[in-house]
């Protein structure tokens, strides 16, 4: 039931991580 929420959380985390990584470069 909470699978969608987990996916959304992981997705936003991955997006912020990749954003900060590309921002550093």
State the main characteristics.
25 residues; mainly alpha; 1 helix; rod-shaped
Summarize the structure.
With 25 residues, the chain is mostly helical.
Lay out the secondary structure:
Elements: H1 3-24
Pfam families: DUF6865 (PF21737)
InterPro entries: DUF6865 (IPR049198)
3D structure, described in words:
There is one protein chain. This protein is mainly α. The protein has one helix and no strands. The chain has one helix at 3-24. The longest helix has 22 residues, at 3-24. The mean pLDDT is 81.
How many strands in all? 0
Which stretches of 5+ consecutive residues score pLDDT under 50? none
* Biggest sheet details: none
Share in helix? over 70%
- Residue-averaged pLDDT: 81
Number of helices: 1
Classification by helices and strands:
mainly alpha
- Principal-axes geometry comes out as rod-shaped
The helix-strand sequence is H
Distance between the termini: 38 Å
Give the DSSP E fraction (strand runs of 2 or more residues): under 5%
Radius of gyration: 11 Å
InterPro entries: DUF6865
């Amino acid at each position: 039931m909470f699978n969608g929420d987990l996916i959304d959380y992981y997705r936003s985390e991955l997006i912020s991580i990749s954003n900060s990584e590309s921002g550093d470069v």
